[in-house]
Amino acid sequence: MAKLVVLKLDGDFQQGFRVTLEIGLEGERPQEEMLCNLPPAEELIEQYICWQLAYRSLGNITRIIKPGRAKVDGCLKKKKKECDEQANKLCTLLNTWLKTESFRAIRERCLEQVDISEEMRLMIRADNYQIWQLPWHKWDLLESYNQVEIGFSSLTFKFKQPQTTKTDSQITILAILGNSKGIQVNEDKQLLVNLPVAKTTFLVEPQRQQLNDQLWEQPWNILFFAGHTQTEDKIGTVHLNQTDSFNLDELKYALQKAIDGGLQLAIFNSCDGLGLARELQELRIPQIIIMREPVPDQVAQEFLKYFLQAFAGGKSFYSAVQEARQRLQGLEDKFPCASWLPIICQHPNVVPLTWPKPNSLPSVSSTRDNASIWSRLLTVFVTSLVVTSFVTGARLLGVLQTLELKTYDLLLPQRPPEPLDNRILMVGADEPDIQHYKYPLSDAVLVQVIEKLEQYQPVAIGIDIFRDLPVSPNHQMLIAQLKQNKHLFTVCSIGDSKETSVASPPNSPPEQIGFNDLESDPDDTVRRHLLSRSLITISSCNTEYSFSLQLADRYLESKGIQAKITPEKNWQFGSLVVKRLEPHTGGYQNLDAQGNQMLINYRAIPEIARQVTLRDVLTGNLKSEWVKNRVILIGVTAASVPDYHDTPYGKMRGLEVHAHLISQILSAVEDGRPLIWWLPEWMDVLWILFWSLTGGIVVLLLRLYGINRGLLLVNLLLVPCTGVTVLYGTCWFLLLKGGWLPLVPAAIALLVTSSAMTYVYILSAVVETEAGEES
């Protein structure tokens, strides 16, 4: 919607003006309002009179130049130069006046509130009509805006809601071709005859009674006049024919009747129209276009041509006037200041007229149209059902699973970055640690690290290092720590068999053991995690709970939040329920969903938590606030010790993955960060069907509104590409909220349906064409 900027100027050039600025949207109340002043500027009006005299003297000469004459006499050249010089002086004085300190606030507010790319309508309201005569389009502030045009109105006005007729089907125009002595009004007539969606009635040099009857008897949208007009003593005079002329007051009642019946625009493509504009505004006509000074015949014709082309071509009223006025600049080598002449006078409370769009539908009966549309809609619906059925069937068979998982991996890293999780501290043995303390790390080193960390009172310490066998020295001291330290958690591995499983450290309390196995999909990517499972007798890892679950539970327990299993066998932490995975979850089909699994909502950040080395801990190079009341993870991060896993964020150490697992539970419970959720199967089907229908209906609309086989490429490329882009953006946005929706199946359904419907419509068009040629 265009911006409406209103400047109300109350005063005169001798005493100065009190200025009110209003800024808002077209058709709405102002959102901004402010007051300031403009100083007296008598020299500005004096300069306007100088320019006006120079311009009018030029006009007297140009009317005697014969068309096609090659040479221009020296007197005319001198007059043109004089006119240009006076015009430049006038523009300079105007901008100097508008840059005064007392007016600066309004200038700055306009720059702040109106974007240079916005369409803007500037309404200048003043009862001092000398304001209307100034070239406001030369205000340097407006040079920054590409889509701005100016309208003029009085400060005082009476408003009566006109009983306008609808203009959504056809524009009615009453065109008066008046006294044509010395001018070519037939050019204007030809332009009006060729207008689309318009019915024009012409009155050629009519008698006053004829014009009066037409205004009374029929409703009109536009009143057009071409001929001679003039203003004397602020009164406008219209020359109907060679002998008859009138002022508007003499047809006041007829004009008022026309305005009440829907007359919205009056165009006087004639000279010196400010007097006419003032009188028409008193009659409350919505819009007027006039020429503020005497206008050369060619300028009047070209303006009308440019304006009608733009307005009937779909541009707004103000944009059409702006384009037509600016195009007159191309004539200023012959007719100086031609682009200064057209101005708009606008009733302040009326939204500008719009030109109706031509009806592009086939000219057949309404019943047949409706039947055809319903038939095509049924075709789209049936096609979408068939496509959705095939896509859903392929999906359930697992054909699309790999592609869906890869697309999920593509979407996840595109989320905005998140902050570090300060509830977790990772202690990683890097290459210098391995070189110094050797590998595997001895029990003595682990004991020293644990004792150092315990000094800072962590909530829990998790050792992500297998210690089913002792690594001397000080193995007994480690055993003692495991027995006595209630904050210490160790790991084991379930494995695939007794031989591949890894037991927990001897004498570890069962409630402080967690398995550290990470679930990998067939492409070896870790996207889900096993929180808990039943005990497996063939494994040496005798615990039901994962390492990350044990540590997260201990942290939440310290906050007074208890974990439990719901009747549906889902884990619940406080009010948060972690829904377990099912065989059909998101992009997974026929998933082995044994145990209690969850999708991993990786934190969107390169480093999940602060990380220090063993050296930092043993030398005391860490702060107490990094450890106190935190979850501590101890593991190996040296590249020489292989422990890398593929994730949607690339390769990641096992220690980092466990940090993500702990973080997502803590963040969901304490911060409300969403877990990954998905739709039930039946809603997945509806989602796919919706996008399939969308593709088909968009192609149908393009077909109905004129897109034919000549634009096959538009249908096949633009519609599907735009639809998939919108779908992708929707799925990305929902993933920010934790939702994993079927992107790939919906995209396939959209593409197939839109392509199929395009092919059907192109084929039917070919058949119709061939049938027409045969007949």
TrEMBL record:
CHASE2 domain span: 400-698
Stated name of the protein: CHASE2 domain-containing protein
Species the sequence originates in: Aetokthonos hydrillicola Thurmond2011
Transmembrane portions of the chain: 685-705, 711-736, 743-762
SMART domains: CHASE2
Keyword set, alphabetical order: Membrane, Transmembrane, Transmembrane helix
InterPro entries reported in the protein's UniProt record: CHASE2, CHAT_dom
Domain of life: Bacteria
